[in-house]
Design a protein that fits this description.
By secondary structure, the chain is an alpha/beta fold. It has 17 helices and ten strands. The chain has helices at about 1-10, 15-20, 40, 50-60, 70-80, 100, 105-110, 120-125, 130-140, 160-170, 175-190, 190-200, 205-215, 235-250, 270-275, 310-315, 320-330; strands spanning about 25-30, 35, 45-50, 65, 85-95, 115, 220, 255-260, 280-285, 300. Its main location: secreted.
C-alpha cells in the first residue's frame, strides 16, 4: 500500500511540489558502513551494499542538489539564510569499507562529505566486538559452548547466547574481547584473519584517516568509545576530549562538529558541547533540517539498505516531511 501511495504521489507531481515547498530545508543524509560480505542482511541500518550507495549518489547528482559542508551550513545559518536545495552527506563511526565503498563514489559525484569518527577502534584495530558477536549468532543461529580450554573458565561446556556472552565479557573486562572473539569464530567456522584482511567489522587505520582527510573528507567528532548519553557530564567531556585529540593527531585539524552516538543525548549535556566550542551536533531524528532547529539538535535523513529507491525519493523530495507535519497537526 505504501509503495502504491508513493507511486501515485510521484505521478501526480506531489514529489515535485514537495521539493519546491521544502527547498529552504537542508537534506542532511546519514550513512554508516559498507557491506563487505553479507552484513547488509544482518544489519541493513548499519551496513549498506556498495551498489545501493552508488545509486543513491547518482540519484542525488541527477536531482541537482547542491553539496555543502557543515562549516558552510553553520556560516549560512549565522547569516540567516541557508542555500536552497542544499545537501550534507554524513558518515558515522569510521568503518574501513567506506574507503572503497563510499568515498570513490562521493568524489566521482563531486560531493563533499563528513566522517563522524569514533577513535577507539581506529587506535585499537580489531573487529568491533559487540557487532561481531551479534553477527555470528545471527548467521549461525545456535548457542556457543566454550571448550574445555576456553579462557571463559567458569562457563566451559555451558551454552551461551549472544546476550549472555556479552554480559560475561563485560564483567571480565575488555582484555577478554579479542580472545573470546577468536574462540567464537573458530567455534562457528569463521576466519577472523579473513575478516581483518577484507575489513569486515574493522575500522579505518590512522593512516587511512589521514589520507582521507588529505583528499577532502572532513573528519569530525563522534566520541572516543561511542559513548555519550549513558555517561556522566565529566565522562562525556573526556570522551569528546580524547576523540578531539585523536582527530587532531591524525589530521592536524581542529574538529568542531559532533554527532551523538545513536543520536542520544541529555539536555544538560549540551553545555559540554558549548563549553568545548562545538558548532553543530546531529541526531538520528529522521527529518529535513530547518534553520529553526537548534544547532545542537540537527535532524538527518537516515538512509539504509532496506529503503527502496522510491522511499528514498519520498524522503529527499520533502514529501515525507510534509506528510509527517500534516500528521502532527491532525493529532494536535
Amino acid at each position: 500500500m505504501k509503495t502504491l501511495i508513493f507511486r501515485l504521489s510521484k505521478i501526480l507531481g506531489l514529489f515535485y511540489l514537495a521539493r519546491k515547498l521544502t527547498a529552504d530545508k537542508t537534506r542532511i543524509l546519514c550513512y554508516h558502513g559498507i557491506s563487505v560480505d553479507d552484513e547488509h542482511k544482518f544489519r541493513p541500518g548499519l551496513f549498506m551494499q556498495k551498489s545501493t550507495f552508488a545509486r543513491r549518489m547518482q540519484l542525488l547528482k541527477k536531482w541537482k542538489f547542491t553539496s555543502i559542508n557543515l562549516d558552510d551550513y553553520v556560516a549560512q545559518r549565522e547569516q540567516g539564510q541557508v542555500q536552497k536545495d542544499s545537501l550534507i552527506i554524513t558518515i558515522d563511526d569510521g568503518w574501513q569499507a567506506i574507503l572503497d565503498g563510499m568515498w570513490p563514489e562521493i568524489k566521482a559525484c563531486q560531493f563533499q562529505a563528513t566522517l563522524y569518527l569514533s577513535s577507539y577502534f581506529i587506535q585499537h584495530r580489531r573487529p568491533v566486538f559487540k557487532v561481531a558477536v551479534f553477527y555470528l549468532f545471527w548467521k549461525h543461529n545456535r548457542p556457543f559452548k566454550p571448550a574445555q580450554d576456553s579462557c571463559l573458565e567458569e562457563y566451559r561446556a555451558q551454552e551461551l547466547d549472544a546476550a549472555k556472552l556479552l554480559e560475561v565479557v563485560k564483567q571480565l573486562g575488555s582484555d577478554y574481547e579479542q580472545p573470546v572473539l577468536k574462540e567464537l569464530c573458530a567455534y562457528f567456522g569463521e576466519s577472523i584473519e579473513a575478516w581483518q584482511q577484507s575489513g569486515k567489522f574493522m575500522f579505518l587505520s590512522p593512516q587511512q584517516v589521514s589520507e582521507l582527510h588529505k583528499q577532502g573528507l572532513a573528519i569530525e567528532l563522534h566520541t572516543h568509545k561511542h559513548r555519550f548519553s549513558e555517561v556522566g557530564l565529566e565522562e562525556a567531556r573526556q570522551e569528546l576530549e580524547r576523540n578531539h585529540q585523536a582527530i587532531v593527531e591524525m589530521t592536524g585539524k581542529q574538529p568542531k562538529h559532533f554527532c551523538y552516538p545513536r543520536g542520544e543525548f541529555r539536555e544538560e549535556q549540551l553545555k559540554v558541547l558549548s563549553d568545548m566550542g562545538i558548532q553543530s551536533a546531529t541526531t538520528t531524528d529522521n527529518e529535513l533540517c530547518s534553520i529553526k532547529h537548534h544547532t545542537y539538535k540537527l535532524p538527518r535523513i537516515m538512509d539504509n539498505d532496506n529503503i527502496s529507491e522510491l522511499e528514498f525519493e519520498a524522503e529527499i523530495s520533502g514529501f515525507m516531511t510534509l506528510l509527517r507535519g500534516l500528521g502532527r497537526r491532525g493529532q494536535s
